[in-house]
Amino acid sequence: MVDIAPIGKEELRRLRASPLWDELDEPARKALLDLLARESIDDQTLLIELQKIRRQHASFKRVLGKYLAGRGTTERAVPAQAQPEPDTDAAVVPQDLAGAAPPDRRYLNLSLTWPISRQVVPHDWLLGAGARYHLRLDIGDLGRDSLLRDSARPLPDDELPHLDDGGRGDWLQVTVLSEDFLVPDRRHAMFLPLDGHAYVCPCPPGGRHVCRPEHRGRYVWIPVTAPDGPRSEASLRVTVAYRGNLLQSATVRARVAEREEPAGGSLSGEVDFTLTSGFLGLDDLPSRDAAIRVSRGYDGALVVDVDGGDRPVSTFWLTEAQIEGALSRARTVLTDVHATRAVPPEKPGDKWIPPLDRLGADNAKSAAEFLDDLWRLAAVGWDLLHLLAPVPAQRAALRDRLREPATIQICRQQGQPLMFPWALVYDIPVDTGDSPVYCEAGLEQARRGDGAGRTCRDSARHTRNTVCPYGFWGFRHAIEQPTSRQDRGTLPLRAGRGLDAPHMTVGRALTLPRADLAEQHLVSLRKQFGEANVRDCDSRESLLEELFRAGQDCVYFYCHGRRQEDTADHTGATELEIGNGERVRPADISARMTETSDADGRTGADGTKGWRDWEENAPLVFLNGCHTTDDTPGTWLTFVDVFSSLGASGVIGTEISVGQNFAGEVAQSFWRHFLAGLTVGESLHRVRAELLGKGNLLGLAYTAYCCADLRLSRP
């Protein structure tokens, strides 16, 4: 890989005058000429723009390499300035890592070592109870003794942003968390240069380098102490972050005995979450204020790590019973907000009495009902916060970090089915034994319904039992839940093909209670997208065929979502009901995906490119039905995961059963904002704000599984 740091405008002019200029293709020449024509561009902006051109135009990358080779250097200059004292925690190794020959690909490597000899502990050793070790971490060529060797993912050189230190690389943050091992409660910084291995140095993270090559070390050495007693399995988790985005996480597992033994152990590691495959496209990632990582512990419990941006806030464990109980209470109250409960038959032959809608024709509620709903949901939301941060100091730290509107990133371990109602979390203390105190400033802002603000102007006065709409995370924050992108490229920030008139595929049920509302809804969608751009699929077969044809920009399900009751384990996977009661399971789509095209993406028997078009187009999927994303821990395959693996840029779904009239309003409002150029996060915020203005809290029932900054591609 070549380094373009030494290239300035004069060098570009020399390149233009050289014979190599003729080897550039026309788009590359045009981009470079446009850059030369910008008179007031500074050196750093020039560098960033050149890096973009190099990534976009292979001919420029090739020609630049030839030019620099002919000029006789590809080295970066290291400023010779006063050298600060090295960090005592950083293992300083006197070697010029930045100037070393770069490996073909770069990987995250983890190894456990003995603290004095620094030799790697073999993978079959039993660790000693209370013994001290060092976790050795580096990013570079794939290590032979790395615990992540079997699950490692490469870090492609050309796709990193290189926005730090004047464009010379990227500062990454490393955190180690464990309930078993004793680990430092701090972050560790690494700098990833344009070439070669990442390194640690004594320079302040985020700033420019003033260090010299001999002050840099290849490894981060993190002291860890094994549990005091024997364990059949002890684990620790490692996260690598960039600007608050959790890029990759890995889990290390070990067996612990009374004494260290050279046999009988099972030291192993696994990469379990990847925001962008191979750390691709980091230059597009916006900063994040907090991250929450959800994984499965060795004992089956869910482990949730809450990271406040500058340091870990809390780690807690949830059993399946706790999760099911919390989700059941939250969704029961949320459902009661808009509908009565169905009444079962009293005797054989009687029919169920269906639920009655509590909402008016315009999906509004009275002022008194709105206040009552706020109080009931606030109590449930405070219980959810207790699950996230069970210790008062943890809750205080989390509330302090998220006092102002923020973007929270939720990262699920690959294959982990937890769907938590994050939007319902309420962070103002609630004591249900006392009366509520309603915040007039917050209520006044909510009644406007314009989405202009995300926080209450009187938030500093909020005390116990203050009820304010902006105490809910879903009204104050943007909450993104991207799925793990391991082996699936970059985190999508654009949906669709970039056409003037995007296309929508609609899968709808013909058994919805009111056919007139369904027809009105379709008429509205055709007005929004264009009559010829909406493909209406009202049967299972027509939908599955259409899904695998070329040209998907948006996919919308206006249907029932039902549980398939499994008498064996009672988990019941979610199904979508299309047409006249025809069911579509996640596994059905996965089966079509498997056979539609081969691994190289060649066309299938029907002459279409099949699911590979999804990877290229990255459509946004909206599941507007009942129980479409409220998976319990036992659900083995979800629509969120199957559409993400297919190549969708994101999936939006409901947390609870919603009424037909309400579902139609939400979808029409969302698509209106999304088509106007707003991001998914902004569009959902506008939808929630509009409903809030009518005294309706059900906007919190919709969840987006994608980047909050995802927006529709435009030409």
How large is the share of residues in beta strands?
Answer: 15-25%
Helix % is: 25-40%
Mean pLDDT: 80
Shape: globular
User: Helix count?
Assistant: 16
How far apart lie the N and C ends? 31 Å
Description:
There is one protein chain. Strands 2, 4, 5, 7, 8 and 9 form a 6-stranded mixed beta sheet that branches. A 6-stranded mixed beta sheet has the order 19-18-20-24-25-26, with helices on both faces. The N terminus is likely disordered. Helix 2 packs antiparallel against helix 3, helix 3 crosses helix 4 and helix 12 packs parallel to helix 14. The protein has 16 helices and 27 strands. 26% of the residues lie in helices and 21% in strands. With 715 residues, it is α/β, with parallel strands linked by helices. This is CHAT domain-containing protein. InterPro entries: CHAT_dom. It holds the Pfam family CHAT.
Short characterization:
The protein has 715 residues and is an alpha/beta fold. It is built from 16 helices and 27 strands.
Quickly list its features.
6-stranded mixed sheet, CHAT_dom, 715 residues, CHAT domain-containing protein, alpha/beta, disordered N terminus
List the helices and strands and how they pair.
Layout: H1 9-17, H2 26-36, H3 43-56, H4 58-71, E1 107-113, E2 127-128, E3 132-140, E4 169-177, E5 187-193, E6 220-225, E7 231-242, E8 245-257, E9 268-274, E10 290-296, E11 302-307, E12 312-318, H5 320-336, H6 367-388, H7 392-401, E13 407-412, E14 437-438, H8 440-448, E15 466-467, H9 473-476, E16 478-480, E17 494-495, E18 504-508, H10 515-529, E19 534-537, H11 540-547, E20 554-558, E21 560-563, E22 574-578, E23 582-584, H12 586-596, H13 612-617, E24 620-624, H14 639-646, E25 650-654, H15 660-675, H16 680-692, E26 702-705, E27 711-712
Parallel strand pairs: 2-8, 10-13, 13-16, 14-15, 17-27, 18-19, 18-20, 20-24, 24-25
Antiparallel strand pairs: 1-3, 3-6, 4-5, 4-7, 7-8, 8-9, 10-11, 11-12, 21-22, 22-23, 25-26
Helix pairs in contact: 2-3, 3-4, 5-6, 10-15, 12-14, 15-16
Pfam family, one: CHAT
Organism: Streptomyces spiralis
Domain CHAT: 420-693
